[in-house]
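Assemble and predict.
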Amino acid sequence: MNFFQAKRPSRKTIRMNPIIIPRIIQISFQHLNYIDLLKCRYVCKLWNEEATKRLQDLVIVHLNDWHSIEKFNRVFSSHDKVSKFPLFKAVRLGKNLNLVDTNLQISLGKFASGIKELVVNTKIGSPEWRFLLVEQFVNLNELRIYGPAPFQPIISGRDVSTDGKMSKLKTPVASPGSKKSQNLPNLTLLSFNLTNKKTEDIFVRRFLRDLFSLTPNLEVLEWIKEDPFLNDFQKTMFDCLMNKTKDGFMTKLKVFRCPSLTCGTKELKDILTKGFPLKEIEVQISQEVSAHYLEHFLESQGKTLELLKLNFCPGTPLNIMVASPYTNLVHLTEITLTEYRRSIGFVGYLPCVRKLTLIRTNIKRALLSIGWSFDSQDQTELSKSLESLYIYNDYLSREQGNCTREIVLKLAHCFPNLRIIRLEGLDDSSVRHLLKGFNNLQELYAPMGTYSDEAFRSYTDKDQYANVNVGLASNRYVLSAFDATHLKNFTALEVESIGLGDKFITHGIIHWKSLRSLTIKYARISFQTLTRLLFELDLHRLRLQYCTVLTDRVLEVLDDPVEMIHDDDSLDLSHDMIQKWRFGSFRMLFVQVP
Amino acid sequence: MALVRVISSDGAAFLVSQRLAKRSGKLKTEIETFRKSSDNSEAQPEIRIVTIRAEILRLVLQWLQQHQNDPVLPANQNEQDGRGDAEMGQSQWDRDFLAPMDLGIVMELILAANHLEVKGLLDITCKLVESKITGRTVDEIRTAFKLKSDFKGNEEEQTRLENRWCVEN
């Protein structure tokens, strides 16, 4: 049936094909994965259009250099003949490309209004960028700025003059006429990810002033990299931000992420006391005084806070009281503590914290400080509400290793509702214990072998663990745990260095029918086992990292990385490959070569 | 109990309670329009639906009957919100209800649910469509849904190029 006929609302078409009504296609496509959506684009024009709209949320375009722009032009030159929507929502520009470049503008031009996220390098700082953003990228939601920090006018084909006079001349020409859109009303996220370079203050100031004047509705402000050389820049940023705030700008700031507020406590005070409706903060606590600001903030505004991330400097003085035990943090659902080692006394009443992350932290002390009593029998609010526990310790001292084991043995008792656990540096028997102890466990990330067997043996009780050995013996512990049938909802597992990979899979993992996501690192797996795994389990995601897959066929795939590079750290089997293997509901297969 | 007569395209009349009928957005507006236009408030509304035949209308009413106590979902709910509801709404009864139907009937049911604005039914039927898409080839999809490719010239090749771009990047 011709869909032009069908589109016309006709009362007589009783047997009309519903699958060409856009609304119905939209509902049907809602839950399709990306492979199926790509396929749907071939069916007919209307499906192409609808699938493209859905795909928009999944596709990011990386433009790294001139070659990729040429390729981009080739591919998308006649895009609008088939579909009037761009296939992507986000564009990332490599460090050699400049947003104000004419060629790039021509390439992106017709898609610009459909692009929601833009990642640019810092060469953005030419006088034209501002008008370009306002006039072309009108629907931009997120802007991320990467790269080295100098914001000086760039030298490109058109813009040869680099001195400030020229830009002053240019600015008034473009500004008076375009009164209608002075800023980017949809822009809610601004992220800086800069690397060290000497900055020229005048350009930085002008750039930031212009940038902040574009973003009246900013909700998320991020500063990602930690770099003491950027202190000046950071200070300038805060200056500009606070100036704008005085004018009633940017009063909607909800999320402030700045893991390394290296510049000092004045800025922290500004952020915390200006009355932003903050829901999420990530800051560094380096001095006692900054802890006081935080305490004050938690007491006055803590009721709306949902997420709290604190990075403690290693030299933070002892006995900082971050908040009084009576502070009501009734909406706080997530806490992350980094380098939390020495301070004691954190927050009191935490009725709904669901996720707790501890990074390079003295686990025992951290848990104590948020109100978990190590020995007490009665459960606190935290005990009841906590659902996920993540512990990242990049090294494990003897003391901490034992501490981890001690915690593992008590976890099931103290946090009966835990569903997601990530504990690094666990030995096999602890894993077994975890699997046996929790009935509600859904996801377990337990990279094993974080410490070597020698180290393991050296600090464990010799009698008890004497026969723990490389390979089979230790695997046997875990395998026996995998027989457990009480874990009905167990859906995700990540394991590392599982020694004899095949045996581990065929005897253990393959019986876990509820598994949907599986990550295996540092293992040797035969192709047969892999296929068995894929056919017997209904996996949605399988990630093999640093694994050797013993087969000609897969190795053949791995030898051709150009076709399949997905992102920086993994290889993605191509669409055809996935179809050929008929992986069913499979969403993504990552294979990483050592 | 206030009743309403719903008449299908081929003339079959169904007598249903107004409470049940009002769970369909379309019937609700029709009943309200009838109330406003008629002088006699006691009169029984009669609604003629010219696009739905008796067999399908019966199925829709049957589904409404089964789900009459579900909370009413706003029709213009956005996709993100609709997601959870669609998954939760798929009960065993729904599966048994849809199981014996062939795709043609399901298609008509989708049209009916869309026309009568019955969101829950639309969701579960569309979910069935979705399951017919997953894991099938393009040709199989076209045959199943009786669709023809309407690409002209190199448009299909264009799509292929773009898809490759997606996979590689």
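Chain A touches chain B through 58 residues (CB under 8 Å).
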